[in-house]
# Entry
Amino acid sequence: MRIGALVSGGKDSVFAIQKMIEAGHDIVCMVCLVPENPESYMFHSINTKLVADISAASGIPLLYQKTGGVKEEELDDMKNALSALKSEYNISGVCTGAIESVYQKSRVENICKTLELEAFSPLWHANPKSLLSEMIDSGMEIIFVTAAADGLTESWLGRRLDRAALSDLERLNQKNYVHIAGEGGEFETAVLDAPFFKKKIVPIKTNSRWLQNRGYLDILETQLIDKN
# Structure
């Protein structure tokens, strides 16, 4: 099936693409909704420019769609974007990286139903530890770009998601109830490499910001390099 993917640049939306490819689907386009409101209920607001690198690295065309990020109103912008993808790329379905957010999943499904598109959420209700372990094993290169929970210090910004990080997240889950997959907004990530990428993304200029009890890593400049 010809699929359009909702992509934020984080681990879940990118891994959802990988799972869809493994299931035999053809990812023909991506769309990134860019909210003006950093507190958007639906969309990530940090490092959305990285999605252009993901598009270039994978060879999958990308549509950027700006949105005010106002609750519920931003859904009209998503509907317009998916309608444009259906018209231009003849997609039959849409995939998302939803894991536990009923709010996000149900709204995507409702919009898809209106547009006569099938909605896919290949990560839905996956075990968080098993899911991150699978991402690591797949060869994805994932770094933390937001830390916003008790126990996640500034040292997590730019840290790679590997076995050691996963073990630390397990401990933080037991001690501070941090969701292992970050589903409560505890952290956000950026993907620099994935199995379906033809090139790898390398950050060459970043800026770290720590604001009292949370921090952000802005990826300001990147380059694409050939994969070994």
Remarks:
- The chain has a mean pLDDT of 91.
